[in-house]
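Entry for the shared binder. Reason: the reviewer on the internal report wants the predicted structure included alongside the sequence.
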Amino acid sequence: MRQPAYSLAGMLNSKSMDKLSQPAPPSGLRHDLTRHFESLSRFNSSRALERSSLWKEIEDEVRRVMDTVVQEDFSDGDACERTDRVRATAWNIERGNCFEGILEVLSQHPQISASDLFFLTELDHGMARSENREVAGELARHLGLNYVFVPCYISLVKGSGLEYHVEGENTLSLHGNALFSRYPIRNAHSISLPNGKDKMRGKEKRLGYQQAAVATVEHPQGDFHAVSLHLDAHSSQRHRHRQMKLVLDHLDRLEPLPVLIGGDWNTTTFNAARAAYSIMGYARRVLMGVRNVVENHYPHPDRWFERRLFGELEERGYRYKDLNEPGGCTLHYDIDDIAVNTNMADWVPGWCFWFIEWAVQRVGGNCSLKLDWFAGRGLQPANHGHRPRVVSEVHSRKEPLSDHDPILVDVELRSGP
């Protein structure tokens, strides 16, 4: 018997479920679940919720929302005169909270604005923290792009850390990932990935699981598959490897075409499935030498801590080393960042912060990690294009537009040596 596409507890350990639902307009994400949020918030585990009469009442509606794949076409057909390469930008835009600034970068930055594809992760759809915008749809309309948006979570609260107390109320309480293209897209669908932890435990209670946005892009060079992928933050290295393997398994079942994958893979080097594991992992890295880890492991997670994930890519014929800036970190931690520390305090005990601060102060009070990546098969870096790079200069304002830097690559759709 086929497993249901959505199971709160089952998704903790089940295989991914490939959904080939007919793409729908944004109205397909409307739901009446918000009236149950107060009751849902009383549950402290997914298994307890699934045994309840409330779950029986709302299960079909939750499943319908999670199975919805939004697709709209706003491109005017004037994609680009350039057809010899594909430019792609991947960026975790942190909900879309700084919408106007993000839009300005995507539309006006001299390199990013020329992208044919945008692999964007962490986009809100009806969350108070981002002014209840439909972030993906609004970006696509302003930029004149085709897009696919897949929901990942139905949030029972306003967010994490400082977001928890933001003014206003959520409308649809959705959060997900998206893929944008200047060229026509077809076969849009999602890949559901198992959770690394129970999302009903802790302060930020959510229904759902990470989903990758997948589509076939009809480019003048030839068709190729594009995947906007966000791997689970609260997970182990082994679990992130498993999630990547499930994505690659799915791609192997599709029409044999070149593939470009981009997004936030959360390659922190840590097992963050539980706070205790993270604390023990941090202690281990201190013993390895703080400067050694900051200089040789955080910027190069593929060298050791995340080697299984990247080894899986290479074994499947995917290249990543020459599609990314070597050692180019995309997330930067400062011990004085109140927002980040407040977020961490939701799941890391307060007594740990003195240890974290002591260690980070030994390298100047900040450190950086490489979380965002491209990988591809059946393609290579473009001969006449920009080198892969982290585009860090987009944060030119008093506040950063996101907690991540965008990454950019130019590729050609043919196999290299």
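Summary line for the report: The longest strand covers residues 86-95.
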